[in-house]
Amino acid sequence: MRLPPDVIWHKVKTYMATIMIVDDDANLRQLLRRILRRAKYDVVEAANGQEALVLFRQQPTDLVITDLFMPQQDGLETISALRRLNNHLPIIAISGGGAAAQFDMLRAASLLGAARVLMKPFSIEEVHAALRDLLPANPAATESSQADMDKKT
């Protein structure tokens, strides 16, 4: 049996990518969660790399945003472990450590497979740009953005 086009469109239209935020800073996780949910993404959170790996094994996500400086398991170890679980997983590495250390860690994250690196503080637009580049189109987010633009005009 073939479904009518409007039913098929509805299924595609409601797809929401799931993004995991890994950071020991609860305030930053909360900020990123708000930004991502406004953009119509589902969000999973972990306070460190070990917790992230447990959650990822239980419920793989479409993308991971991970801090690099965290207790128990740093972001570089987390990126390496995620790469072993899913070599194609888009990963965004973020860091706010000291300038020299931050640059070296972000460079190392890129070498380990982070698709994008963002230095703290980063802008909301930098986050959105990285998501647009790394994830398939999110129709729910596109509709939300278009609705926001329509309200402004």
Q: Which structural class do you get from the secondary structure elements?
A: alpha/beta
Give the neighbour order of strands across the main sheet: 2-1-3-4-5
Question: What's the total helix number?
Answer: 7
Report the C-alpha radius of gyration, rounded.
17 Å
Alpha-carbon distance between the two ends: 43 Å
- Could you estimate the helical fraction of the residues in percent? 40-55%
Shape: globular
Order of helices and strands: HEHEHEHEHEHH
The parts where pLDDT drops under 50 for at least 5 residues are 1-13, 142-153
Number of strands: 5
Mean pLDDT: 83
Could you give a short account of the major beta sheet? 5 strands, parallel
How much strand?
15-25%
Please explain how this structure is put together:
- The protein has 153 residues and is an alpha/beta fold.
- Helix content is 54%, strand content 16%.
- A five-stranded parallel β-sheet has the order 2-1-3-4-5, sandwiched between helices.
- Helix 5 (99-112) links the parallel strand 4 (91-95) and strand 5 (116-119).
- Helix 4 runs parallel beside helix 5 (99-112).
- It is globular.
Observed structural traits:
single chain; 153 residues; alpha/beta; globular; disordered N terminus; disordered C terminus
Could you provide a short overview of the structure?
With 153 residues, the protein is of the alpha/beta class.
Any chance you could write out the topology, listing elements then pairs?
Elements: H1 5-13, E1 18-22, H2 26-38, E2 42-46, H3 49-58, E3 63-67, H4 75-85, E4 91-95, H5 99-112, E5 116-119, H6 124-134, H7 139-152
Parallel strand pairs: 1-2, 1-3, 3-4, 4-5
